[in-house]
Amino acid sequence: MPELSLFALIFLVSLFILIKAAKYFTLSAQKIGLFFGITPFIIGVTIVSIGTSLPELISSIIATLKDSSEIVIGNVIGSNIANICLILGLAAIISPRALFIEYDLLDVDLPLFTGAAFFLALTVANQQFSSGEAVLCVLGFFVYLLYAINSGDRAPQENRDEKVKTTQPSKRSIYKEFIILFISAILIFIAANYTIDSVIKMAKFLNVGTEIIAVSAVAIGTSLPELIVTIKATQQGDPEMAIGNILGSNIFNSFAVMGIAGLVKELVIPASVLREGIPVMLAVTILFFFTTQDKKVTKWEGWFFIIIYLWFMGKTLSFF
């Protein structure tokens, strides 16, 4: 039992460092981008959106290199479900009023969001994820990225300028940002390494599949940046950023995380993920699609998402 406590402590500490390092990496990358004249909106839809998903990406690459590729699909599926049920649910509950959306999500965003989930389900249906499918996933992410950039160019200038709240650094301070970027990148790699190592050891100690821990503890932990961003946006009265963060993160997970990890090595997909994780992810994706049709998410809908997540976690951890 003391051994398990040690592995759990290493997991929590390394996960905390991973999330903190990803935050500093993202902030420094923003400032460097501003210094070199990249517009705030482009930084927002690229660096910021990717930065909040950096823990999922790096931990998935490390897991693949350690021949534990089942962690990748567990992390992606678990994070996508957590983003919709846990994060959106909490955002709707803590919001003083319903989360209203002015932007027309039905035009392109929701179809891409839903399509990414179903494409992921199709690619892993045979319990394998080939390098060819990985290339298509990466291509899918670039298509979404180009759409996000082009749609931003058509947005009002004041909305674009509000996407990133950082000031342009001076020449003297830019060297400091490069140092922070370099150090945080090293910390991300080291922390991700220890996170995956501790997950593998805990799984062996508890005699459970690593994908079970990945779809629960790792998924919740790596989704914390999205949770923080979403709750902060909700408290500041910006529900569109909160919902947009969930949309972007799920598309990034389905396309970029799976695609890049799949390019490193062919991924193995556990039968338990196909049997239990994929149907729940597709179900909550469809539920999200219909929930946002009236351009609002109510407190009661938020509670329903939370109930679904509690049920999913209970089934995953064999409580039910």
What does this structure look like?
- By secondary structure, the protein is mostly helical.
- The protein has a single domain, classed as A middle domain of Talin 1 (Up-down Bundle).
- 79% of the residues lie in helices and 2% in strands.
- The chain contains 13 helices and four strands.
- The protein has a two-stranded antiparallel ribbon. It has a two-stranded antiparallel ribbon with strand order 2-3.
- Helix 2 packs antiparallel against helix 6 and helix 5 (109-123) packs antiparallel against helix 12 (271-291).
- The longest helix has 36 residues, at 171-206.
- It is globular, with a radius of gyration of 19 Å.
- It starts with a helix and ends with a helix.
SSE layout and pairing:
Elements: H1 2-35, H2 40-52, H3 54-65, H4 70-94, E1 99-100, H5 109-123, E2 128-129, H6 131-153, H7 157-161, H8 171-206, H9 210-222, H10 224-235, H11 239-264, E3 267-268, H12 271-291, E4 296-297, H13 299-316
Antiparallel strand pairs: 1-4, 2-3
Helix pairs in contact: 1-2, 1-8, 2-6, 3-4, 3-8, 3-11, 4-9, 4-10, 4-11, 4-12, 4-13, 5-6, 5-11, 5-12, 6-11, 8-9, 10-11, 12-13
